[in-house]
Protein: Hydroxymethylpyrimidine/phosphomethylpyrimidine kinase
Organism: Pectinatus brassicae
Amino acid sequence: MKKVLTIAGSDCSGGAGIQADLKTITAHRLYGMSVITALTAQNTTGVQAVQAIDADFVGAQLDAVFSDIIPDAVKIGMVANKEIIQMIARKMQQYKVRNIVLDPVMAATAGSKLLQKEATVILQNELMPLASIITPNIGEAAVLAGFTPTTTDEMEKAAKIIYEKVFAKRQDDCAVLVKGGHLTDSADDVLCDKNLTYIYNSRKIDNKNTHGTGCTLSSAIACNLAEGFNLQQSVKNAKKYVTMAMQTNLDLGSGAGPLNHMAAGGWLTSDIWQ
Ligand SMILES: Nc1ncnc2c1ncn2[C@@H]1O[C@H](COP(=O)(O)OP(=O)(O)OP(=O)(O)O)[C@@H](O)[C@H]1O
Ligand SMILES: Cc1ncc(COP(=O)(O)O)c(N)n1
């Protein structure tokens, strides 16, 4: 059985972060492990409190995992501050980790900050270059590219700018996926690697329950990379998983509710994943 590690923050309400990632990994019938970077007190209505974990303790968790069970892919989500980012970057290099999916989580959908502002540059310079794929949403792409994309053409332009900033020196396969969940007319995602652009067209599902879509997409990409799919196919399969998880409209809580991983997991028994 392939193993997937998530390095992320805990969401006690189970919709995003570590909890969404472990549900996704289990629905893919893979073995999930977790390194927690921060505790959050949050629910479907927003984030009430954040408590970052001491960077040395994040390092101790990483040592415990990598000295025993080597993951086939790693998803990195909320990293909270620069000390944690630098610890993760050091450990990723020490253990020569491959198949890293980095979701540059900066804020919750409801607006609360999940990354210190001054840590963004460290994230971009020290951790992103170690990834195989980075998956900014529109707002994160705006911070990284310097302008807010509003169309698929502009998402492509933003992805190319981010690629040049982060991956210019890389020879192996790596890519930037700009996610379009916050567009108004569609939910198209745009993937750019060194040479090509792939557009994943998707109609916008009319559903307020989108808490954890970005976490779920990135951990599903990690599951696909662990199984040996290439970046382009991994994104295609992962987007299908997220769409399935949204479509059944599990309507929990009074705000933006979580996804339905049971429904999405059923799809994975089909031929596409086999
Ligand atoms: N209403 C929607 N209909 C269809 N697909 C969606 C919708 N909302 C988000 N998605 C898809 O979910 C994935 C995550 O995209 P999104 O842009 O919401 O990321 P995010 O903002 O990082 O997520 P999160 O809300 O967890 O922070 C993408 O593949 C996106 O296209
Ligand atoms: C621990 C953690 N990680 C990531 C997110 C982003 O997800 P969303 O934007 O759906 O709230 C979150 N809310 N909490």
About this structure: The two ends are 13 Å apart (CA to CA).
